[in-house]
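Review session, final week

We close the course with one last complete record, chosen because it touches almost every idea we covered. It is o-succinylbenzoate synthase, a protein from Haloarcula mannanilytica with 348 residues. Go through it on your own first, then we will talk.
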Amino acid sequence: MRVDPFSVPLSSPLSTARGTISERSGFVVRYDHRGETGVGEATPLPGWTESVDACRRGLTDAAAVAEDAGHTDVLLSLDAASVPAARHGFATALLDADAKADGVPLYQWFDSERQCDRVPVNATVGDGSPSETADAVEQAVKAGYDCCKLKVGKRTVDKDIERIRTVRERVGDDVTLRADANGAWSRDQAEDAFDRLAPLDVAYVEQPLPADDLAGHAALRGNGVGVALDESLVDRRVDSVLDADAADVLILKPMVLGGPGNAHTLALRAREQGVEPVITTTIDAVVARLAALHVAAAIPDIGACGLATGDRLAADLATDPTTITDGAMSVPQTTGLGLDPAEVQPDA
């Protein structure tokens, strides 16, 4: 097992609840298994996963285990609850090697009967004035996207409703609109927003309430706008969210959940309970983006996913083999992730 640090700059700073991020730092993981070298990525994100230092320690400890034991013991040494990004890095490398050894792309390793060439993806539009937001959505639609996610919650509900109404009037009824409040609303604000978003045909609002308010999210359901949970999955098991009947949609980030395998399992479990999965990245480099793409490709009839995030990086670990056309991302059909580990360069 080999672990190499990397850091890639963002094309523009990313504002989060915990500060502004100007680069993404993490680790490339390589692991030899079944005669193949698999490659993985561990890219922690503050507020979502462990810190970079904790990730480094987790991978260092795992590498020591790998010297004397097999991959099962390495996985057991990486706790998805405490070091999910570290576990994601090793688990992805292991799965990449397994799929290569079996001669299939990773999504077919999850489901050998699947054939998937493209996965629908959404465009994400940040906060702006009504005209700026409508312009951005219109540009995304012209680029081929038929699903757009709009950031809300930084302004008053009145102003956000005005923004979304302006977008709907500009692009018409054929474009799917989603909103992401990042837990910014109170229950009263969320109820008001949902009542006014329903006539605008907003598909769902992502994390309308704070992460720990499962009861409040459950109460919002059934009012014409779906409830999607994202931050609520950081500190609790997905099973508890499903048991609380608190979501119509689960936003599943493989980096946060401890690996592609965990994300795939939870997506199918959610689907069994009538909750739709949406697979997204945490603004990762190309290795982790491909892992998330293959998870999405392995799920039948998956809706638009949050995978079109490569343009947020000013540099990357390797050339991205995917393309985005007409609102869908191509899925590599070569074995494993679709990358040659030798071409993944931390200092690229």
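Two points worth writing down before the exam:
Residues 84-102 form the longest helix (19 residues).
The mean pLDDT is 95.
Good luck, everyone.
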